[in-house]
Design goal:
By secondary structure, the protein is α/β, with parallel strands linked by helices. It is built from ten helices and 34 strands. Among the domains are: 126 residues, Sandwich (Immunoglobulin-like); 135 residues, Galactose-binding domain-like (Jelly Rolls); 167 residues, TIM Barrel (Alpha-Beta Barrel). The structure holds alpha-L-arabinofuranose.
Length: 656
């Protein structure tokens, strides 16, 4: 053999492409089977793992209004320079039911050394050079001459920023100061120190970075919100999850208590505070600083359709399973009706006026809503029907999401599906937290679904669960993400029945998580996209406009030889987009025949690839272990794609 040929052969052998026969795939780009639903790939937000307080909500002070069960949790008295004083927690329940407690401080501090320190949420993340905005509600009838210093401290207790406050007055008022950090800290602290003699009452002690997302007051952590925006999500489901249900009805999520002025929102315990004994988080509460207005605003900011899920008169069935009596469901149903008015109503309506008062006179364009989270059994169906009747008769255009329970199959699932089908439900929320193998084996789950006039599917919570390792991020392996990618080709291929999908949960703080895996990990300064995040992103930003068939021997590719595929065209960008997963250990050479569109000769196509060993994870310290890499390839009506072992490949081919 000619030695050049020999060399080429050896190279092929080395690369492994010769080890398996070429796979022929036909893309029928001229035969769209269905539109890609506008909201197809979305996000699921729940306040779990410190996702809201201590996470997306940018407030840095923990227990800012002394309303935690232990009123001084997160706070420490500071006595320096021989100064003294005293802190009394006062409850004025009848004067302020939403936020009854405040700290009454007696100051005897000629040297400016008495006050309080706040530890933040597992510390405070402070960026050098950044501006921070401090505010406090104070009442100083007997302390007008007191002076205050606000000091940022790093981990060693060294000051890295300072501001002064004075001119305190009689009566509750808000006082503000800004400071610029002269150093950085991952686990910094805030001190509020007084000088002089007298008494001062304080409440709602707050510190926000000036650089919140879109510079909104009471805003969100910019880096975390940017991670969401980068996903270009079609929808955002909020506020959960089990948090909607509460362990008992008293601690269910009530949206009306999360709107209006932040200081008038009533804090409650977070259900994840005690859910898992081995991950108990005694300092986990919901301040609702991030409430329903902020969720709607976020949805609008990132171009996602809002999808609120409401309590349906049932507490979590894994906990108490407490239900509201059928003849006492009205307030729950009214909450749902009022929420539609809050989101969409004219500013002359009661709830539309509140939205306008909060700064958003224009409607938020709510089109869908969930009734209950993971509910099951007849008590759910009974209650769902009451909601459905009330909502559909007043707002027939609102689509309702209903529950298929917590499991992907079984008697509970079958019962709910049957009942909801009879009710002609709009969208049924299926959840699957399963091992990677389940996702690989279920890529064809919807290929044979009932396509008659039945309900559509919302794959509302899913994640491939693998073994735990020492790192917080350890369950977010590339192997888990790859399996999800394979499954997602099945969702995309069946977009006529699967209308929406979201990975869950979304966020987790490395020092304060209860549940993993999660899509995005963070600490107080940094954030990292997991392999699963990049899979979601590749599907979402390449969602296209119409699904087209991609076939091997006339059949969908859903696991044969460990290969999975789906295809769309983007009629606006004039591209055909293929998503091909090679879940096997061998590289594969794929011969693609593109039919039904004219591809320019030697067209430059892009191949975005995610690949690594299946145990690879991204961590805050090593965030780039696996990220998408783009290669150029020359395409035409026939071309070859090489799919590495354990890879997701998104191939974008321009057409005329
Ligand atoms: O995503 C975490 C939890 O999983 C959700 O709160 C719940 O709906 C599901 O059981």
């Amino acid at each position: 053999m000619h030695c050049k040929k020999l060399l080429a052969c050896a190279t092929l052998l080395l690369c492994g492409y010769i080890t398996s026969a070429q796979v022929q795939l036909t893309v029928q780009a001229g035969k769209p089977v269905t539109d890609v639903p506008p909201h197809m790939w979305g996000i699921f937000f729940e306040d779990i793992n410190f996702a809201a307080d201590g996470g997306l909500y940018a407030e840095m002070v923990k227990n800012r209004s002394f309303e935690f069960n232990s009123p001084l949790m997160g706070w420490k008295e500071v006595k320096q320079n021989n100064d003294t004083g005293h802190i009394l927690i006062v409850n004025r329940q009848s004067a302020n039911t939403a936020n009854p407690r405040y700290a009454g401080i007696t100051v005897n501090a000629p040297n400016g050394g008495y006050g309080l320190a706040n530890e933040g949420f597992r510390g405070m993340g402070i960026h050098k050079g950044a501006q921070y905005n401090f505010s406090v509600w104070a009442n100083a009838a007997n302390g007008k001459q007191l002076q205050a210093r606000i000091v940022l401290l790093d981990e060693n207790g060294a000051p890295i920023g300072e501001a002064a406050l004075s001119g305190f007055r009689d009566g509750w008022q808000v006082y503000k100061a800004s400071l610029t950090a002269t150093g950085a800290a991952a686990k910094g602290k805030l001190q509020l120190l007084f000088k002089g003699q007298g008494k001062i009452d304080i409440d709602m002690v707050s510190l926000f970075p000036d650089n919140t997302w879109k510079h909104r007051p009471n805003g969100l952590r910019a880096d975390l919100a940017q991670m969401l925006a980068d996903l270009h999500p079609g929808f955002i489901r909020f506020p959960g999850g089990c948090i909607v249900e509460g362990r008992e009805l008293a601690t269910r999520y009530q949206w009306k208590k999360t709107v209006g002025k932040p200081e008038e929102r009533t804090l409650i315990v977070n259900r994840w505070n005690t859910e898992f004994a081995h991950r108990s988080t005694p300092d986990y509460f919901q301040s609702f600083g991030l409430g329903f207005f902020e969720y709607f605003q976020l949805a609008e900011d990132i171009g996602a359709a809002p999808l609120p899920i409401l309590n349906c008169g049932m507490a979590c069935q894994f906990n108490t399973g407490e239900v509201a009596a059928m003849n006492e469901l009205d307030p729950y149903v009214q909450d749902a009706l009022d929420l539609i008015e809050f989101a969409n109503g004219d500013t002359t309506t009661q709830w539309g006026a509140l939205r306008a008062h909060m700064g958003h006179p224009a409607p938020f364009h709510l089109t869908m809503m969930g009734v209950g989270n993971e509910q099951w059994d007849p008590q759910y169906i009974e209650r769902y029907r009451v909601f459905e009747k009330a909502i559909k008769s007043k707002y027939p255009q609102i689509k309702l999401v209903s529950s298929a329970g917590p499991f992907s199959k079984g008697p509970m699932f079958d019962y709910l599906w049957k009942e909801l089908k009879d009710t002609r439900a709009d969208l049924i929320d299926e959840h699957y937290y399963m091992p990677p193998q389940w996702f690989l084996s279920n890529a064809a789950r919807y290929d044979h679904y009932d396509r008659s006039k039945g309900p559509k599917i919302f794959a509302g919570e899913y994640a491939a669960h693998t073994k735990e390792g020492p790192e917080a991020e350890s369950r977010n392996t590339w192997g888990s993400a790859l399996a999800e990618a394979a499954f997602m080709t099945g969702l995309e291929r069946n977009a006529d029945v699967v209308k929406m999908a979201s990975y869950a949960p979304l966020f987790a703080h490395v020092d304060a998580w209860q549940w993993r895996p999660d899509l995005i990990w963070f600490d107080n300064l940094r954030t990292v996209g997991t392999p699963n995040y990049y899979v979601q992103k590749l599907f979402s930003v390449n969602k296209g406009t119409q699904v087209v068939p991609i076939l091997r021997n006339g059949e969908a590719l859903a696991g044969k030889d460990s290969l999975y595929a789906s295809a769309v065209i983007d009629a606006n960008a004039h591209t055909v987009i293929l998503k091909i997963v090679n879940a096997g250990a061998q590289p594969r050479s794929l011969q693609i025949a593109l039919q039904g569109v004219k591809v320019p000769k030697a067209a430059q196509a892009g191949q975005q690839v995610l690949t690594a060993s299946t145990t690879t994870i991204n961590t805050l310290d090593q965030p780039q272990n696996i990220v998408p890499v783009t290669h150029q390839l020359t395409a035409g009506s026939r071309f070859t794609v090489n799919a590495a072992p354990a890879s997701l490949n998104v191939i974008t081919v321009p057409y005329r």
